[in-house]
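Trying the structure run again after the queue cleared.
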Amino acid sequence: MEEITTPQALTNLIRTLSAAGAEVSSKKVIVGFDGFVDEIIRPIRSREASGPTYFSTITQFSSFTADAAGKSADIEIEAQEVRFGGNAPLMANGLARLGMECVCIGTLGYPSINPAFEQMAPGCCRISFADPGTCHAFEFHDGKLMFARLDSLAQDLWQQLCVRVDPARLREEYQEADLIAFADWSNLTQATTLWRNVKVHYLDTLPEDRKKQLRVFFDLADPSRRSTDDLAALAHLLNEFAQTYDSTLGLNEHEARTLYAAWGLKTHPQHGGETLVDIGRSLRQHCQVTRLVIHPIDQSLVITEGSILHKTGKKIAEPCISTGGGDHYNAGFCYGLLAGYPLEECLVLAMAVSACYVSSGRTPDRSEVLTFLHEWLQQERQRGQTSSNNHY
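Done. Tokens:
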């Protein structure tokens, strides 16, 4: 059952996050294996002397383009920024800004790292073995449309990783890691092979006590383009990881519904008949991960073998940016998980980090997240007082 994030829950998280010290900052995370250079674009609906008016929603934009069928159209676009992107770099940057030691292994440029990735937090170590993909991200208030070129990501990335990065260096990094995040399965053509080889050659060779302590996190990105065979192989791979490691699969609502249909788990004849809790239960059971997280825009839930938590978030009406919101959510959740927070606080922290990012367009540090949490707490208290007054 969906629960409002109460003032008490926010107060608890503020207290916990404020007290975070050396023990949390000593935790080490490795995130891989993609990398993009993103051009953030706003499509222009009209232009007046005072300036442009942008398409505010995907619905507006799609209606305009649909009306152009058979007639053609000319759409002006405004490139607002070029920045580093990719699920792994954005998540790694989010964790580093929160104060954790982080290593990003990805397609950041080869033989030299692309200058866009110089924007990443100084505390984030970068290891690159291939050139980045490129993405034109069309931003709207209700989401984003991402047009990507994946030429460099369609190669045999495992072979490139083996040849271009010293295996001894990688072995040392993995031996020291507390959490390993595997990101962007959908856009890496050979991701299943890459992930399995990392598991076999670097994780499965760890001492047994390290295996028991290690956490793994999976972020797939939009899997709708992948074949049925690819998705079946993914489910098998997730099961392989789950047999040995504490594992978390993180999905947005679209990704969750896509997997639910692709894996043949639908029980209702019409799409949309199932609740997110129904979908989450079935997905977790199918791939056997320790916990499954689903995060729509204004809420999130986590499902384990014995519990379900479903919390509301703070929706940002007019986001500054949406590209990367999910990656920052994942950073917040993994921070809480490694810090030993209760799952309720992991969810609230994840939503706060993501909302803080999309509202400002910048990756927040811990103090900025705390400021955001205090503002959220104040709003919830005011809402509670208003509700109480209306009751009487």
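The longest helix spans residues 366-391. Worth checking whether this holds up in the mutant runs.
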